[in-house]
Model the fold of this input.
Amino acid sequence: MLRAELHVHSSFSDGKDDVRRIVDRAVQLNIDLLSVTDHDTVAGSLEAIDYVRDENLGISVIPGVEVTTSDGHLLVFGIEREIDRKMSLKETAEIVKKLGGICVIPHPFQFERKGVLRTELFRYADGVEVFNAKYIVGIFNWIARRYAIRYGKPFTAGSDAHSVDELGYGITLLDGDLYSSLERRKTGVDGRRLPLGVWIRSSLKRRIQ
Done:
């Protein structure tokens, strides 16, 4: 199966590292598919696509963004334009589908990180992030998995990386491309919790920056 890193932030939003460093590190980690998902901007992901194409690197990149909806954050893939902030999740998901994209609910129930709290909203997403490597209370990942099963949604994982040191801890396993894998519910997760030392070092670096 293909190994996908689907939740990464660059210096285009609140991440520490630039896009090139992120892509280079992903290649070192033998990641097959990458999406840079900065908050409310696709600029980072588009730069990553250009960099991979120009340097002929051995990794696939798809456009991505983490949209701030009025109901919580929503990962969007396959769209090369910005989506307006603060619309409802339902309205945002409908626009994404009209534009040919797909969306995944990240870190649900983690209110301190603007995760979606209302489970009925799961029905509007194409997948649910059931493993987030930065979970503060591990039970939220477990609850996310339970509700993903209840609503028949495929699983994804996310490192939620804000530096290159945090890459690769939340990997989504795909049976083909992202779109067909989600549609056929042929996904899996491979991850481990971000080590506390890595988290602390990355946080300190961002504050010093």
Summary: The longest strand covers residues 2-8. The longest helix spans residues 43-55.
